[in-house]
Write a structure and sequence with these properties.
GO molecular function (chains A, B): metal ion binding; tRNA-guanosine(34) queuine transglycosylase activity
Largest sheet of chain A: 9 strands, parallel
Keywords (chains A, B): Glycosyltransferase, Metal-binding, Queuosine biosynthesis, Transferase, tRNA processing, Zinc
Family (chains A, B): Belongs to the queuine tRNA-ribosyltransferase family.
Catalytic activity (chains A, B): 7-aminomethyl-7-carbaguanine + guanosine(34) in tRNA = 7-aminomethyl-7-carbaguanosine(34) in tRNA + guanine
Shape of chain A: globular
Structural class of chain A: alpha/beta
Distance between the termini of chain A: 32 Å
Helix content of chain A: 25-40%
Oligomer: homodimer
EC number (chains A, B): 2.4.2.29
Mean pLDDT of chain A: 94
Low-confidence stretches of chain A: 1-18
Number of helices of chain A: 14
Radius of gyration of chain A: 20 Å
Strand content of chain A: 15-25%
Largest interface: A-B, 39 and 39 residues
CATH superfamily of the domain at 38-287 in chain A: Queuine tRNA-ribosyltransferase-like
């Protein structure tokens, strides 16, 4: 079966009732050997083949990469950070400059997060109440209130295709009661986000919380599914837990999510995490790893990560990956090493592009494997390659 | 007359004897109203329309710009710095990685300077003797001897199309005797470079010195022309003198250079300097200004420089230049300002590309004006625009 075949007879096909969301998901095929699924996300700014990886465009720029170069990596949708954009340049400035699409120059779909994770990870003097989060900007110390309603108002000014609900993220490990409290608050905030939404050309994804507790994850999913969101994210992971715990929590959550909505694992992750999560039924990812690691001279390859500052690359004429079409792979490893040891900007630029291209090629290969019902073998093959490296 | 017309009947056409240099110049047309001239430089890596501006690729990279992006600016030839490349990664490493073309990925012509100017401007504890320059690396303090022969040996390892002679650059103002000494030493070094050269696929350009003294410039030019170089540079300018003094010195030098060889004004300069020098008969330029200023948020436009950090651009939806095809000009000034105020790499990247594109478009327009015998009017129009800004 080819990726763009439509299967209306599948037991996993969209509910015949459909939904009226601006952003919709069409399931095309589920691998016969696992939960990996092929689908299409339709948004006001075009369609995206799922599973997909979203490059992170923190303040309206994927760091060090022009929009043409982002397109050339194969990306179909990018992510913008509400927290960062609200601080600089401010949502009103973005709105005056035409919204995030015009501002950044990215004409495809955009997902904005809600700021919840950045409040948890970056802000200072954070106080969470039922009303929302009160905190100080990590840039200038300004006092800021971020409520579910305000998060949606900002995201509507940004004009993303997909807005994320504001959620209450807590550090793990934590007491079960604290995890349950945050999960229940997140569910109440999801409903407030839904009620605050005004734009017809934007859909909200809800975020399942509940730490590593299967029962709390199930309860969170059930509460949110009841509210009928356009998509569901799995949040609160990749915060320091073991990969195996993350994979188990995905397994505990996915069965409680509807098959006709996309599933987005937030802030994940390493190539192996993407492969494991797709295996378990996840459709969408975002992570700063390809760009952040690229800036630090680490390149992803099928043989595992390559650290380009190492002396062994000094006179190596081979490219990182002879099959990769990215501009970094038209140079030798020796040249790339030289850029980093000389402190040249082009090093971070080229490796950011290479790593983003690597992630996109990985997702393209995953979609092809699912379409051919050979995702489990594909997974084994990829994991073996990375472990060899 | 169109730029690519060939004029064999012109009094300025190449000498019928021609020359056996790997790099040759064909004069196509001299503007009827001034000394501005249109020509073609032929090198082992292709042809370049002159006048032209060479982006500076210090250590084998135009800072922050990929090779595809350099090509897209319209550049026809780039410059590499012998001093910088000799220190990092070392000429032998570049040679092992296939030479500077393969190393950098730039397949067009490359000119390498000799290191003379960097010894003057960057190195520490410099001691110049008749033998050469002895100095300490500005990076690790290593003791280095750079002789004319060594400079050519390094440039042969780099494999550039055009190697520059090692010259003795001195700070201005200086005593006439010191200027004369350095000029005569540079002429002797030119001959030593010529005698040291082994590669058939590389030509050497000599460098006219002599400070701001017309007689010394004439004497320098005559000595070098006698030796029959493939091209002649005007060196030792743009070291702090007034623009008018630089222009006068160009006027004092050009008549003593042969019409059938290209003339290269080293390290220059601002857009107005290029326009004034082309008016006086100069064919080639290099300068870090477009990239260095771009990294510092200064953009060149026909209305003069634009400082993008200024508050006035905060919500400006207009591009820098609606007619410019570069990727920066697909964004608003407000977005570009935001990139700089947020410390995002994309700001320096986009403005470097814009400024390089600006310089190339300026040279393209200059060539068209010369071809149409309207260079003097073109010059006036450009200068008026920049002064208005």
């Amino acid at each position: 079966m080819r990726p763009d075949d439509e299967r209306t007879d599948s037991p996993n096909s969209p509910s015949p009732t459909g939904n009226s969301h601006a952003v919709t998901y069409r399931l095309q095929h589920t691998d016969t050997g696992c939960r990996a699924r092929l689908g299409t996300l339709t948004t006001p700014h075009g369609e995206v083949a799922l599973p997909t990886f979203m490059p992170v465009g923190t303040v309206g720029t994927v760091k060090g990469v022009t929009i043409d170069q982002v397109v050339a990596t194969g990306a179909g949708i990018i992510l913008g950070n509400t927290y960062h954009l609200a601080l600089r340049p401010g949502a009103d400035v973005v709105a005056q400059l035409g919204g995030l699409h015009t501002f950044s120059g990215w004409q495809g779909p955009i997902l904005t997060d809600s700021g919840g994770f950045q409040v948890f990870s970056l802000a200072e003097r954070v106080k969470i109440t039922e009303q929302g989060a009160r905190f100080q900007s990590h840039i200038d110390g300004a006092r800021i209130d971020l409520t579910p309603e305000e998060s949606i108002a900002i995201q509507e000014k940004l004009g993303s295709d997909i807005a994320m609900q504001l959620d209450h993220v807590i550090a793990l490990p934590a007491e079960r009661e604290a995890i349950a409290d945050a999960m229940l608050r997140s569910a109440r905030w999801a409903e407030r986000c839904q009620q605050a939404a005004r734009r017809q050309d934007q859909s909200i994804f809800a975020i399942v919380q509940g730490g590593l507790d299967a029962d709390l994850r199930r309860e969170s999913a059930e509460r949110l599914v009841e509210l009928d969101f356009a998509g569901y994210a799995i949040g609160g992971l990749s915060v320091g837990e073991e990969p195996a715990e993350m994979y188990r929590t995905i397994d505990d959550t996915i069965p409680h999510l509807p098959t006709d909505r996309p599933r987005y694992l937030m802030g994940v992750g390493r190539p192996e995490d993407l492969i494991e999560a797709v295996y378990r039924g996840v459709d969408m990812f975002d992570c700063v790893m390809p760009t952040r690691n690229g800036r630090n001279a680490l390149a992803f390859t099928d043989a595992g990560p390559v650290r380009l500052r190492n002396e062994c690359h000094k006179t190596d004429p081979a490219p990182l990956d002879a099959d990769c079409p990215c501009p970094a792979c038209r140079h030798s490893r020796g040249y790339l090493r030289h850029l980093f040891t000389s402190g040249e900007m082009l090093g971070p630029i080229l490796l950011s592009i290479h790593n983003l291209t690597y992630y996109q090629r990985l997702m393209t290969a995953a979609r092809q494997a699912i379409a051919a019902d050979r995702y489990p073998e594909f997974r084994q093959q990829k994991l073996a390659g990375w472990q060899r490296g």
